[in-house]
Amino acid sequence: MATEKRKTLFTVQALRAIAAASVVFHHVLNMLVRNAGYSFKVPTFGLAGVDLFFLISGFVMIYTHFDDFSHAGASGSFVRRRVIRIAPLYWLATTLMVILLAGVPTLFSTLKLDWNNVLHSYLFLLSPNSEGEVGTVTQTGWTLCYEFYFYAMFAVLLLLPRRYFLIAAGLIFFAGLLINAWGTTLPPWLTVATNPLLVEFYVGSVIAFLFLAGVSLPPGIAIVAIIFSIGILVIGEPSDGWQRVFWWGVPSAVILAGAVSLERLDIRVPKVLIALGASSYSLYIFHPFVIPAFGKAWPLTHLQVPAFVPGLAAFGAALVVAHGVHLWIEKPMTEWLFRGFPAKQLQKTLTAPD
């Protein structure tokens, strides 16, 4: 039987907008120091938006596919939807970056075109670039390598009854963390499976199970917890690994749990956040093109103004361009691909009930 479509959680849409915007904010501050001639210490808390994204991803996968476990065709349908939703826009951005690296190499100070890195990037695999930094051709694409690992694991676990998900996923993640703890040397693309950041996907899944079971924080506690967690995010400047999970992952998890708890109150989320939440993926993928371009152009104006002026202008430009990409490229392309590759009706398999 077909899975019933669940209610859209507007608080989660708002969190998507905030997560993407926080990453953009961080890159704007970096641009002001590196390209626009300003001098100040750049705080790192904006990068916590990535951790919030990972938690939201774990939550959304369970929330939207809660009734799909052990259904025939569920895994294939899930993979199809995720690939159509994520890959084309990312491949478009990757191709644009390759064209710039090959055609206008003077735009980049030290980064050079590395075809090994390009191939791995298209396959959602981490690899070192020409500077020796492990990532993808696009600046933010490295996070999608983690997303696709989680999607692959999720697709396999959809074959099981739902009650086994948290146990099976926990064992898979724990095995990866053990390998990491042993200090085993792995190729860059395989380190995705051993990074502590995967805990954030898992915690997001746990929050979804609790939410769908009717567990939520009282409104007052939810609001206080969100405010307190934002404070922790701002003061924390962790390195990668478990420090990042503790200082940014845990507060982000509390923010997510608090936000979905407030969802039960039918609070009114500002329409601008809902709209930005819808275009958050375009913003996340394409802002690395807009902000550096703005940074290179700004010194040509010779304007002596406070840093917040070009900062706000760059931030606004990234939002406008990303929303345009969402409306005129991402959305039509995604809808066209969904029509061209329709999903099959899900049928219940003969497994034990959940």
Write down the secondary-structure element order.
Answer: HHEHHEEHHHHHHHHE
Q: Give the structural class.
A: mainly alpha
Number of helices: 12
Please give the domain count. Answer: 1
Write down how many β-strands occur, each being a DSSP E stretch of 2 or more residues: 4
Neighbour order of strands in the largest sheet: 1-4
Whole-number radius of gyration?
21 Å
Largest sheet: 2 strands, antiparallel
- Alpha-carbon distance between the termini? 16 Å
User: How much helicity do the residues have?
Assistant: 55-70%
Mean pLDDT: 93
Short descriptors:
two-stranded antiparallel sheet, 354 residues, 12 helices, 64% helix
Would you mind describing this structure in some detail?
- It is a single chain.
- The chain has twelve helices and four strands; from the N terminus they run H-H-E-H-H-E-E-H-H-H-H-H-H-H-H-E.
- It is mainly α.
- It has a two-stranded antiparallel ribbon with strand order 1-4. Strands 2-3 form a two-stranded antiparallel sheet.
- Strand 2 (127-128) and strand 3 form a beta hairpin.
- The longest helix is centred in the last third of the chain and has 33 residues, at 308-340.
Question: What's a quick, concise take on this entry?
Answer:
The chain has helices spanning 10-34, 48-65, 74-103, 115-122, 142-157, 165-181, 198-212, 219-235, 242-263, 271-278, 280-297, 308-340; strands at 71-72, 127-128, 134-135, 347-348. By secondary structure, the chain is mainly alpha-helical.
